[in-house]
Amino acid sequence: MSELAIRGAKVVTPQGVREADVLIREGKIVRVGRVHRPGKVLSARGLVLLPGAIDAHVHLALPVAGTRSADDFESGTLAAAAGGVTTIVDFTVGRAEKSLPAAIEERLKEARKAAVDFSLHAEMIGWTPERRAELLQAAELGVRSFKFYMTYGDSGRRTSLPVLGAAMERIARLGGVAMIHAEAEELVDPGRGPYPEARPALAEEVAIAELAVLALRTGCLTYVAHISSMQGLSTFLAAKERGAPLMGETCPHYLILDESVYARPDGYLYSVTPPLRGPQDREALWTALFRRELQAVSTDHCPFTRAQKEPGKDDPTRLPSGLPGVETLLPLLYSEGVAKGRISLSDLAWYLAEGPARAFGLWPKKGGIQEGADADLVFLDPQARWEIHADALHMATDFSPYEGFPVVGKVTSVLSRGRWLVRDGELLAQPGWGEFVPWQGGKE
Ligand SMILES: [Zn+2]
Questions:
Q1: Which of 324, 356, 365, 383 is positioned for an S-S bond with 56, CB 3.0–4.6 A?
Q2: Which class would CATH give 3-50+370-427?
Q3: Could you tell me the distance, in angstroms and rounded to a whole number, from the CA of residue 11 to the centre of ligand 1?
Q4: Distance of CA 22 from the midpoint of ligand 1 (Å)
């Protein structure tokens, strides 16, 4: 399709909602407003038009605990497309003896099958200050987001505070961002599994407090991944108040589920790190979303099948941690958030599009409905009602943590750079369509 006019949709941006036409040419949005012109016209009356969702935290084909997360770049991105996610940000697979450029090239090869556009965070494993030249090399390859773990010392993934601080200083100069898994190593007990008693909110709170000081002192833009607890959140907000350059993320499972699921016979299927918390944590996170105090809602999509989780049923040290989510991100945040009055439609466009796009160098190519942006758009029918059932989803796992959930609002059509990934409910996405989106702009 070279040109398409979408007429009369409710166009949603973080600034507001208005009825407008959107003209698309050669995969780009060329006009938002009144469009009078012959040619292909598509009426979208009664539908909500959202910017294509960006899931900034996705782990496809991730090697974990002797297995791999169940989705590869093909199945995971087809599922993303079905759920209105038009861009994902995945991770390189870091190792002490592998340079960042090598890890990036390797991951770009694996991602060739992607059906949606993608970007990468560089996973920083076994990092040492001597490797600093690799940061610039990564930036030259279009990667300026660097992921560090403050925990997981047992599997060698942890970065110590002095090394982290030195890296953050360099990343600040590069105009990049440090993305952090914030749990204080000494306050977690990995031998007891990914459960709240082994990974308490206190661990999150202490790590965020330490991280905030490093961010404040280095000036490094710092993205706190998957904030799960009220304690972690309030420490995060207090540090921002003090001027620490922090951005925060939470995930649908912390907003919708709580730790009561662990008492179920199949509770081990809900293993995720950080673990699910209590109802008061959930409410605090919704309040922060309502106040626009966070940057993104992303999924930490890392699915495993029942069979993969089974060995951990009685032995928590053999339990892979992670939940499926990329396909249900937008529908759940709309249904549980917007339809229930906890957040507005405009908030949705912030958390699922502009917020993550701005955090990770995708803006203004991605994340907005404005002239010059890629024509990545989601049509949502706000009246439609359906139920979540794992067997009707496309993610490569055989359960959903939201099985049987009633959902209000349904993704009916999805465009990626002007091409249909979903049209009237039919999944048309093709592996190989997705392109790598290098970090837009940035200093040298
Ligand atoms: Zn993750």
A1: 356
A2: mainly beta
A3: 31
A4: 35
